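Exercise: predict the fold of this chain.
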Amino acid sequence: MSMIDPPWTTLVGVDDLAAALGGATRVMDARAVASTLRVIDARASLADPASAAQAYATGHIPGAVRADLDRDLSDHARQGLGRHPLPREGDFTRRLGEWGIGPQTQVVVYDAGDGAMAAARLWWMLRLLGHQAVAVLDGGLAAWQAAGLPLATGVVAPQALPPYPGRFDEGRIVSADEVLQRLSQAPGWLIDARAGERFRGEVEPLDPVAGHVPGAVNRPFALNVREGRLRPADELRAELAPLLGEHGPSDVVLMCGSGVTACHLLLAMEVAGLQGPRVFAGSWSGWLADSSRPVATG
């Protein structure tokens, strides 16, 4: 069992994390509890990927190790799977061991703010391995600092463990082929978390073609957030549930540009009590890997 009982499985507030880290004012206390509580800094920037490493070096939550979106949470050698292809299972489980994460570890992941870049991505990847004791820090580093809590500098070197003893649940990872086969279904089964102007095809700053998968419904992930924190569960459910149409949550597939912010929408749906959606890992950028796949705009 993790040190947190019951374990944190979706969101955790800064006050609860600070208390678990031993008062949050003593850096050594934070390191002392790291064998049962591991904090991970997953800050990422699509516009400036190198900036995340500098941000971590400048200041991070005491005891936190750093996860790099491109190096640790993606494998760019895998072609045709989008801008952020999932890493191979063995590479990821080895990395978890290097971070000192085992089956009994309570993991808390944070990024700069709302969790979309890329805390929720790591949350989802741990869930794929069956790890339930993982939560996103609500409000991220911004909320931590707003509470007047301290930062640490320097690189944290945790005591390594063997590779995490888990396997990806491949059934939770949706492929482009499955999406293609479902295009004739009634709307609500495919929800795209990108901003509205990208979904409609008005602008496309990252991918070679603008637009969306035909039949997809748009729900920008930013609508799930207020002042950097996830909105209350009842508000989220009232807005998200109608998007599903005739489909149950377990029939729903979530996507975005490259499989990162879709995980934030998944987190919001779980908080809202709509458990069971799966993620199209390649998302829009993976869809575009085959030019014969249809594109819609508007």
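Check your answer against the key: Residues 11-168 form a domain with the Oxidized Rhodanese; domain 1 fold (CATH 3.40.250.10).
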